[in-house]
Amino acid sequence: MVPSLMAALDARESECRARVAELRKQIAELSEAVSQAEAELSRLQIRRETVKQVLADGPVATRDVSVPAASGPVDVAAALLAAEAAGDVTVMSPDYQRITALFAMSGSAWRCKDVCVELGLQTEARHVEGMRSKLKRLVERGILAETAPGLFRVDGRELGW
What we know:
Elements: H1 2-57, H2 73-85, H3 94-106, E1 110-111, H4 112-118, H5 125-140, E2 144-148, E3 151-154
Antiparallel strand pairs: 1-3, 2-3
């Protein structure tokens, strides 16, 4: 009788250990999901605060470029919100956020090399061409316009504003 009782206890203990291991695995997965959701929430809060600040500050001219800006910070904020609503994760990446913030705060037209300098990037050809690619992607999204070859400014015509 004792050996069968011990075997039953061993079996139950084994089942309980397996259940504990499964619950710990679920806790780890849920912890990761919570961390990701909290990070997304944090990014959304930062975006909201940035948009509010851009809307409150108004345009600030930092460059004297011969092509006047046709739009201002309100337009960039609207474009970012539209991109976010459309699920455009490209435009909402940190690199694109820095670029759009630069255009939003200045309200001016910029050349690719000047954007690189202003963002603290190197001005080697590969960096300038990488920036040109990003700026052209923003043109495709209707956030920027290329007013002359290599000269970009805020533009929201494709978004209807």
